[in-house]
Each structure stands twice: as C-alpha cells, then as structure tokens.
Amino acid sequence: MPGRRAGDPALPEDFLSRSATIAESLFQRLDWDTEFFGIEVARVVSGRLNEREVREILAASAGERIELLYFLCDSGDTASVRLAERHGFVLTGLRCELERSLQTNSDSTRASAVRSAVRLPDAEDREPLLAIARDAFVDSRFFADSRVPDERARALYAHWLDGCLAEPDGRVHVEGSVGDPAGFVVISGAGAPTAKIDLLATAAAARGGGVATRLLVDAIGRVRAAGSRTIEVVTQGRSIGALRLYQRCGFLPKKTGLWYHRWFDR
Q: Would you give the DSSP letter of residue 30?
C-alpha cells in the first residue's frame, strides 16, 4: 500500500474505501503548508487519539496522498503520546501557550515611553526584516524535524512575515532606523476580545539590548488601546529566552502541547 513504512501495521482495505470520510473527521488539509512545502500536508484534528483512530488516520492519509501529518498532542495524555510514537509520529516541539490580562493599566506609562521607538515598516525595511525572520526562529519544530532542510525552515518564517508585510492593516511594527530595523512584532486581532502576538524577533546584532521587550510592551499597549481584554502568544518550550521575556512582561502559562510530525514516503 502506498505510504506504508517498514514496521507499520497492516491496514484493512475497507479503511481505504472510507478514506475521504475519515479524512474530513480526523484530519484537516493545510493549504498554506501544502503550497509552501510543495507536498500534501495535513493536521490531526484531535489532541487525543485511540488505537482505532490512529489506524484510520494512517489509512486515510494514504488515500488522500498526505505526505506530512502534524499532530498536536495533549501533553497530559500519556496514552496518546505512547500511541503516536508507536505509530511513527516523531516529537518535534513543545508548544507553550501563554496569556496576559489587559484589564489593568499598570504598564501604560511604560508603553507610552517606548511607543516613539516603534514604527510601521517602510519599503526599505522589507529585505532586512526577512533576513531577521530567516535567522530568528531556529528553536521551532521545523528545525527539529530532520526531514525539513534548514533552508526551508528558514524560508518558512520569511515567507510568513512577507505575507504579513503585504497586508494593509498595519499588523507589523518595527524598531530601528529605516533600512536597518532591529526587530519586529506581528499582531493579530487587535480590538477583538483576545489579541495575539503572531511573530516576535530581534536581529542577532541587537539581541540583549531590550528590543524585544520594547516591541512586546508596545504591542500590549496597542491592543489594549484597541479594546482587547486579553493577549495571547505561542512559543516553543525549548526557547527559554522567549519564555523569560513573556513572563517578565506579565504573561502566564495557559496550555502546553506536544508537536509530532509523521512522514509518509510516496
């Protein structure tokens, strides 16, 4: 059967005939990832699995020609962890979700003080910003996956940021002189009940100078002013510096999950 690896359990043929239905209920095709990597990429819908579901997912993945499958496992569900690893899923990262209340104005003065140093990006900032993105996210799960070449992992974050820069809604803010930015932050959902920090990075030469802190404090002030009540961010558990930054700025842990990747050789 296409996609079976040595050591995979035999999968009944009736699973394949139901692959389309199984695919819709148990995993979701990811258009952005599929287009970027040039292969069929999908994500398991649930954070917990049983033996039957794993076998059906593997069969449906073959029927749908999936080549890379993501699984964000509930970190507290040891049964799902063992099951995923037994069926060829490889651990690539610890996802840490943090949140911060915006109901108090305790840091409003601090936000005002840094606001003048943070600005919208200029056209001359684009290439330097993409270079920062290529260099800054080496703790991500894509770098931990040996099947993803480092250059593709670097390009993923540059491509993501480039799409944000092309949007007209001012989600990207930077610090530094025009043509030589020191860092950037990408915000989404400003004004919604819960806003999000999508990306935050500092140029290698500027690290340790407080750039990330100023960008983050500015972002907090902006989304609070827009009416948001909470702000969330997701980072990697192996990125100790990022975790310390967010905790210094008032973020608290909300949820953790384990990222697994499962490859299928087509």
A: -
Q: Which residues of 62-99 are buried (b: 16+ CB within 10 A; e: fewer)?
A: bbbebbbbbbbbbbebeebbebbeebbbbbbbbbbebb
Helices (H), the chain: 13-17, 19-26, 31-37, 51-63, 78-86, 108-115, 126-136, 141-144, 150-166, 211-225, 240-248
Q: Closest Cα partner for 224 from 246, 250, 252, 192?
A: 192
**Mean pLDDT in the chain?**
90
Contact, 193 vs 187, CB < 8 A? no
pLDDT at residue 110, rounded to an integer:
59
Between 11 and 37, where is the model more confident?
Answer: 37
| Token reading at 123 | 């056209």
Q: What are the pLDDT digits (tens) for 176-198?
A: 999 999 999 999 999 999 999 99
Query: Running DSSP on this structure, what letter comes out for residue 58?
Result: H
pTM value is 0.86
Handedness of CA 181, 170, 229, 240 (dihedral sign): negative
The whole-number pLDDT of residue 168 equals 84
Q: Strand pairing partners for 98?
A: 233, 253
DSSP single-letter state for residue 89: -
Q: Which structure tokens are listed for 194? A: 């819960």
